[in-house]
């Protein structure tokens, strides 16, 4: 397992990912704005927005939206005004499933990807997106979103029945990560813990299907990855914190 390097926490970038399950209702947008004001992330990645308009977020005037139609799909990327930002290239899915953004943030190049995967043929979909990412990727790669599948059915699902049902998709998921040299940031930092990002009221079960996937080259910059408690959405916010610069440890001469 890769070992993450020590960091200085004084210079960091915080990215939040959340499936909002629709933002057409005003009180849900208000709840989102409350979360934003509380966490103050540098980058916000939203999935299942069901929304075709720009969001009224004065602190996040740089916005990128991939929409499909009202009450279906939709992904969004928001960049905080305080961030020194330059967009180089963007690829938006016309079906509202993903955004791939190549950009410079605070003098470092990133490829940021927000994904809302379908609830069937997830690994096939992810494979197609990863190929598109490979074609335009530059700099530090960060992929996040609702992938609608678990990486480890024994650790990432509360129900033993669904564990058996999702074994094949989990295996294909792991194979894709190996092929593209990607790592599950939360699991790297919490190797033995069980936590979940989605509650299914229909099946009365919990699962971890929302991820931050990082390239091997991003491991030295990874400080923290946290799953927050469920609040107004049926998905939890997941927060990734990256170091802007690495602080070397050891004696200096």
UniProtKB/TrEMBL annotation:
GO terms for biological process: base-excision repair. Mg(2+) binds at residues 19, 48, 146, 148, 234-235. The active site is at residues 116, 146, 235. The record marks 210 as: Important for catalytic activity. The keyword Manganese applies. Probably binds two magnesium or manganese ions per subunit. InterPro entries: AP_endonuc_1, Endo/exonu/phosph_ase_sf, Endo/exonuclease/phosphatase. Its cofactor is Mg(2+); Mn(2+). The keyword Transmembrane does not apply. It catalyses: Exonucleolytic cleavage in the 3'- to 5'-direction to yield nucleoside 5'-phosphates. One of its GO terms (molecular function) is double-stranded DNA 3'-5' DNA exonuclease activity. Keywords: DNA damage, DNA repair, Hydrolase, Magnesium, Manganese, Metal-binding. GO terms for cellular component: nucleus. Belongs to the DNA repair enzymes AP/ExoA family. This is exodeoxyribonuclease III.
